[in-house]
């Protein structure tokens, strides 16, 4: 019997022509798919005929004797295919769609390999995985779209359904634009980029790793956002020579991303004082500061650990470039709201802290540690506190910020999902067994070594469960970072000053930023 996995009512898929799907099995395995919708949205009658559509010519309907029949059992021209090209792993979410004599193919943006949307076959001899799409009427005559579940694993569920924007059909501008909507990542309260182009005139980056290190070394947040948008566009549309993580010449990321002087003067603030202030502008400023560091964290995990893991699937880079783009969007949305409600206090004018980067430094030696601490502790904690933050803005009557925070929260669930996905992957590579609880033990050991204090509730159990986090990932969880063997806390250095090494190798320079970290977690 064919196991079907329900995706959504058909009318919810009419907003876009492509959707990104993330599936997870009971065993913790992941599949990323693209759902293509090639037809216009029209309802079907109870006999299966599309209302308002002419009946197909005899012989044009797929029959059970047609090998493609089981791969397109709907009249909506819906197709599901794996999200990565089986050649070199390019993201197929922006593949061109071309009609052939008797088929429709998706053309990979990197090397023009074509794959039949029904069968997955390519003239090159390669084959992409495709999944049969079904559209059925339920008892209330609602059209439900389902796909055939993957054969490997059991208990598959849909954990992400994300519309794919068409904004990458054209390149973003190479100068800072005045945005018209949130998709343009409006950033009104950050300073303008002065005389520095998005693409450097001298020695422009040619690989994703080079772009990652350039962005990490970009102090101005507006330029960081624009470079993030441009780099992701180049990566998704096949305009980079390669990812660049397999070469011996891959550049090294900075130990600490630099910040503009206008920001560094406020980086000595006590994070607890920043956190305890309730003013809406202060809250927005603090949240924007976190998102600026989050942009760097997304690029850093790729640049720092990609070269040391040359066999990591290309989907890793797809997930984290998407994350970098999300964080750039979040930063811009928050600074735009800050500008709207408090024009006299632009981003950079209030106290900020760099405590997130302490965890980045603590986990710089291990991708497993980085995924555990940054994505399955820090970002997961965001899932817990976001509903309260949203409610606070709602009580203040700031519904525009509520909408922004709801976008951020939905995106953050997918980020924790990515953290869980790649934590599971690295554990599998290291021979750690999921079935006997080995993955949970490995995670808790990383937290013990890399986190300070107890991870406290209340927990957003629903959001965490959607992201793949069972209770073993957060209940009774405590870190011992900074604790001596006798159980006493080590002396802490309240302020750590990292000074730029003017004679060091490019890419390894440190920012001249005084940083004070949180005393506890």
UniProtKB/TrEMBL annotation:
Entry-linked Pfam families: DUF455, Rieske_4
CDD domains, per this entry? Ferritin_like, Rieske
Give the highest taxon in the source lineage.
Eukaryota
Q: Where is the composition biased (Basic and acidic residues)?
A: 178-187, 488-499
Query: Which UniProt keywords are present, listed alphabetically?
Result: 2Fe-2S, Iron, Iron-sulfur, Metal-binding
Give the molecular function GO annotations.
Answer: 2 iron, 2 sulfur cluster binding; metal ion binding
Domain Rieske: from-to ranges:
48-144
Specify where the region named Disordered lies, as residue ranges. Answer: 165-199, 244-264, 481-505
InterPro entries (alphabetical): DUF455, Ferritin-like_SF, Rieske_2Fe-2S, Rieske_2Fe-2S_sf, Sol_Rieske_ferrdox_dom
UniProt xrefs under PANTHER family: 3-OXOACYL-[ACYL-CARRIER-PROTEIN] SYNTHASE-LIKE PROTEIN, SI:CH73-314G15.3
Name the UniProt record assigns to this protein: DUF455-domain-containing protein
The record lists the organism as Macrolepiota fuliginosa MF-IS2
């Amino acid at each position: 019997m064919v196991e079907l996995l329900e995706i959504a009512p058909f009318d919810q898929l009419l907003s876009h022509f492509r959707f990104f799907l993330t599936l997870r099995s009971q065993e913790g395995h992941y599949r990323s798919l693209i759902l293509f919708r090639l037809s216009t949205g029209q309802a079907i009658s109870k006999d299966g005929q599309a209302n308002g559509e002419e009946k197909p010519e005899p012989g044009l309907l797929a029959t059970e004797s047609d090998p493609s029949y089981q791969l397109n059992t709907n009249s909506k021209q819906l197709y599901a295919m794996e999200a990565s090209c089986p050649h070199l792993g390019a993201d197929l979410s922006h593949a061109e769609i071309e009609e052939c004599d008797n088929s429709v193919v998706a053309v990979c943006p990197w090397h023009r390999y074509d794959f039949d949307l029904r069968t997955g076959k390519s003239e090159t001899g390669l084959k992409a995985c495709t999944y049969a799409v079904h559209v059925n009427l339920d008892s209330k005559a609602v059209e439900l779209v389902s796909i055939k579940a993957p054969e490997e694993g059991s208990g598959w569920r849909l954990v992400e359904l994300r519309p794919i924007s068409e904004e990458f059909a054209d390149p973003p501008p190479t100068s800072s634009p005045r945005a018209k909507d949130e998709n343009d990542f409006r950033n009104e309260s950050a300073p303008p980029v002065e005389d520095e182009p998005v693409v450097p005139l001298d020695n422009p980056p040619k690989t994703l790793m080079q772009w990652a290190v350039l962005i990490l070394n970009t102090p101005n947040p507006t330029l960081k956002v624009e470079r993030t948008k441009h780099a992701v566009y180049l990566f998704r549309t096949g305009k980079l020579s390669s990812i660049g993580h397999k070469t011996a010449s891959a550049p090294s990321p900075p130990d600490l991303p630099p910040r503009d002087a206008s920001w560094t003067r406020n980086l000595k603030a006590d994070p607890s004082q920043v956190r305890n202030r309730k003013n809406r502008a202060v809250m927005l400023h603090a949240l924007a500061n976190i998102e600026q560091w989050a942009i760097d964290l997304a690029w850093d995990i790729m640049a720092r650990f990609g070269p040391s893991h040359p066999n990591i699937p290309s989907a890793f880079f797809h997930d984290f470039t998407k994350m970098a783009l999300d964080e750039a969007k979040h930063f811009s949305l928050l600074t735009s709201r800050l500008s709207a409600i408090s024009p006299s206090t632009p981003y950079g004018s209030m106290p900020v802290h760099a405590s997130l980067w302490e965890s980045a430094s603590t986990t710089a030696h291990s991708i497993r540690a980085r995924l555990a601490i940054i994505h399955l502790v820090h970002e997961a904690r965001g899932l817990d506190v976001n509903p309260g933050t949203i409610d606070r803005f709602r009580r203040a009557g700031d519904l525009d910020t509520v909408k922004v925070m709801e976008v951020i929260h939905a995106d953050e669930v997918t980020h924790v999902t990515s953290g869980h996905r790649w934590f599971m992957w690295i554990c599998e590579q290291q021979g750690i067994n999921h079935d006997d609880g080995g993955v949970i033990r490995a995670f808790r050991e990383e937290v013990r070594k890399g986190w300070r204090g107890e991870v406290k509730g209340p927990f957003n159990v629903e959001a965490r469960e959607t992201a793949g986090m069972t209770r073993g990932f957060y209940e009774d969880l405590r870190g011992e970072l900074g604790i001596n063997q006798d159980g006493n806390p080590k002396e802490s250095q309240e302020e750590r000053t990292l000074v730029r090494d003017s004679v060091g190798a490019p890419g390894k320079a440190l920012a001249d930023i005084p940083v004070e970290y949180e005393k506890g977690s």
